[in-house]
Amino acid sequence: MMARSDFKIIVVGAGPAGLLLALLLSKQGISVTVLDGADGLDPRPRATHYGPPAVRELRRAGVMDDVLAAGFQPGKICWRKLDGTYLTGLDNNVLGENHPDRVACLPLDQLGPIIAAHLAKQTTAEVKWGHRVTGLGGQDDQKAWVDVLMTGGDGQTTAKRLEADYIVGCDGANSQIRRSLHGDLNFPGKTWDEQLVATNVYYDGFGDYEDANFIIDKEHWHMASRISTDGMWRVTYGEPAGLSHDELRARQPAKFEAMLPGHPKPADYKLANFSPYRVHQRLAPKMRVGRFLLAADAAHLCNPFGGLGLTGGIVDVGGLSDCLYGIYSGQVSNPDAILEVYDQVRRQKYAEMVDPISSENFVRLSSDPDTVLSGGEDKFLTLCLKAEKDEEFAREMALGINELLYDFTQHFDLKKGRE
Ligand SMILES: Cc1cc2nc3c(=O)[nH]c(=O)nc-3n(C[C@H](O)[C@H](O)[C@H](O)COP(=O)(O)OP(=O)(O)OC[C@H]3O[C@@H](n4cnc5c(N)ncnc54)[C@H](O)[C@@H]3O)c2cc1C
User: Fold this and answer.
1) What is a single molecular function from GO for this protein (predicted)?
2) Ligand 1 atom 5: the closest Cα is on which residue?
3) Domain-located, residue 223
4) Residue 45, pLDDT score
5) For an engineered disulfide with 26, which of 31, 110, 125, 364 has Cβ 3.0 to 4.6 Å away?
6) What span, in angstroms and rounded, lies between the C-alpha atoms of 50 and 307?
């Protein structure tokens, strides 16, 4: 078995998924170029929590020590009524402080720079900013290529065609790679009627709130989570569709006063970020077309109330890095077959886990808080009640999401896998 010295991967998109894929590949000696149309890392704070399977991949990439130095391991997650009444919850502390798979919390605007700094140390990786992919060039039985518009420091643009053995679209929700492969509007699923407003806020009135709190209420449903060790919280709440950014901004003080413990006025807190989002549940028809592959938001979207968007994306790129490593190292004699397994497994895990879990929690938040625990109808919350009395079961529940992982090295010819 000989590694191919001319093997090259292009990753489109230097978001967290693209950077992590490039890091995992380059640490195995694979030559990888990351193209991004922007001129630097996306500064929006978006994701904050990374579930156990994502933590495993971040650890494998060698970045977890830095993630935990900047962030922390949240304790309990719970569901409450608007008046603060505790309903039930799941305690990550049952895993113990040193469990390697514990959920980690760090706002995305801090995770991106950590992965980028590790990637910068890899000699076989490069990140090219100002390189916007405008479409697929094509592919044959040797290579694939993309059309790129490069913007220089003087603002001048130059069109270019770049080629590689495989090209991976990690170019986010509006992925050009996905649209070129499947059509602009071919991203099956749905857009939720409600829009979400994600805020970061410093407020010291959360009292006995746990690290993560989902508030069930027909009108003022929301999530409040501690997201830093210096007192910053993420408060994400729903608003009707159709309101403009200015209208949402004008309504924010009244929403906080109605929702948060202590009914604070604007002088009582410091708003550090305010970002409205439309949210979707969508899955691309295929995550592989020949030498073009999709991963993370480019391939699938979900609402953020399951903490599964980037968690699922990170698991994609972990698995894909194994498939590509197997091809590069000569341990996979049928590249098409293993990449087809990648497509099938990752789409199945989205359909059977990410989509239902995140959708159920979204719907749960606007259900009736007085009846949600009665009659065992909400199976998940009923399991949480059981876990509160059974520590072994609580540990199982805390790690249940590791079912998102899949070992693609079992499809290597000799099942030797990756060191
Ligand atoms: C409010 C909110 C909270 C969230 N919370 C969580 C959470 O707690 N946990 C979780 O797991 N997930 C969460 N998510 C989801 C998570 O933020 C996303 O899944 C994640 O950011 C997607 O990363 P990505 O690398 O796939 O895409 P992106 O971060 O969108 O990166 C895409 C990159 O591609 C580049 N690009 C785009 N088009 C082109 C092109 N044509 N050519 C070249 N480059 C291009 C962009 O410039 C960008 O750098 C949350 C999302 C939101 C909105």
Assistant:
1) oxidoreductase activity
2) 47
3) no
4) 80
5) 125
6) 7
Q: Please tell me the total count of domains within the chain.
A: 1
**pLDDT at position 417, please?**
55
pLDDT in tens, 310-341: 999 999 999 999 999 999 999 999 999 999 99
Residue 395 Cα, ligand 1 centroid: separation in angstroms?
Answer: 30
Q: What is the pLDDT of residue 203?
A: 98
Structural domain includes residue 14: yes
Residue 419, pLDDT > 70, answer no
d(CA 401, CA 44): 26
For a pocket test of ligand 1, which of 127, 174, 302, 310 has the largest count of ligand atoms closer than 8 A to its C-beta? 310
Asked if residue 156 is part of any domain, the answer here is: yes
What are 347-369's pLDDT values in tens digits?
999 999 999 999 999 999 999 99
Tell how far the Cα of 16 is from the centroid of ligand 1, in angstroms. 7
Output the pLDDT for position 1. 65
Asked whether residue 290 is assigned to any structural domain, the reply reads yes
Q: Is the dihedral of CA 152, 156, 162, 168 positive or negative?
A: positive
For 131, the domain range is 8-72+107-189+281-362
CATH number for the domain harbouring residue 325: 3.50.50.60
Report the nearest atom of ligand 1 relative to the CA of 16: 25
Nearest to 133 by CA among 142, 145, 141: 145
Dist. CA 342–CA 348, nearest whole Å: 10
